[in-house]
Design a protein that fits this description.
This protein is α/β, with parallel strands linked by helices and 277 residues long. The chain has one domain: Rossmann fold, CATH 3.40.50.150. It is built from nine helices and seven strands. A seven-stranded mixed beta sheet has the order 3-2-1-4-5-7-6, sandwiched between helices. Strand 4 (185-188), helix 8 (211-227) and strand 5 form a beta-alpha-beta unit. Helix 3 (68-79) packs across helix 6 (111-124), helix 3 (68-79) crosses helix 7 and helix 4 crosses helix 6. The longest helix has 17 residues, at 211-227. It starts with 23 loop residues before the first helix and ends with a strand. The structure holds S-adenosylmethionine. S-adenosylmethionine (SAM) binds next to loops.
Length: 277
Amino acid sequence: MQRGREHLKARPFLKWAGGKWGLLSQYEPFFPRDWGTYHEPFLGGGAVFFHLAQVYPERGFVLSDINADLVNAYCCVRDRVEEVVALLAYHQAHHSRDYYYALRASKPVDPVQRAARLIYLNKTCYNGLYRENASGEFNVPLGRYRNPRICDADNLRAASRVLQRAKILVQSFEQVLERAQPGDFVYLDPPYYPVSETSSFTAYSQYAFGQAEQIRLREVFGILADRGVHVLLSNSDCPFVRELYRGYPIHTIVASRAINCHGRKRGPVTEVLVLSR
Ligand SMILES: C[S@@+](CC[C@H](N)C(=O)[O-])C[C@H]1O[C@@H](n2cnc3c(N)ncnc32)[C@H](O)[C@@H]1O
């Protein structure tokens, strides 16, 4: 651990489609003040976790996602950060078009090598997208960054420090029902329901997230709410989502993000934040 850097505030170490870092000031008024354990079952870049972990250093956190590679990266940053940093520094020094495609084609077995590969690809691929083909292979092309920051050692160490307090699991979202207790806080940030044919962000992994999953998620939301858990859910602002959560408080959030699947067009779009009470 480097001296003198312990005060650095940890930020998400991955660029994730649908990342919430830029929206935190709009979310903040809706966070419950008092809660037991925090659960984030659609972890992605973990923006809300990183924020809450600094504000409430004494609380417990359970983070999960269905993407095993993503969860492995979090576990390695938590438990073996210096090895991750060393490998990323190596990737940074060797970065080129050929290096990107060679690493993309590789299938390391060692967890730390897998974690560094995922972070490297995330920092250098097109738009920081995570997309896999039907066989589960990452297939995003090289991005157009002049000088991508591949190894942000200070932030990785800061992230490692706050992750010490987190349990991190590979799980589908329904499993949050097995652990969330009355008074806990659950933030649900699923792949958004597409507002148009070209706006689909649902292909994060080989696990599709369509209408049936959105309906199952609504059931989970209802069970948690009835149990007395504080639940917050983000989704796209569309009639399907508003109808699904009718009866719960729904707030409108203004986001500036990619509004077509290629990320070329950016502009303000509204999203919803649904509260359990
Ligand atoms: C919108 S992203 C989360 C973004 C995150 N909140 C952030 O700020 O970066 C959605 C995440 O849900 C995960 N996911 C997709 N289907 C899932 C499922 N059935 N159960 C749990 N996680 C799932 C994806 O792997 C992806 O990481």
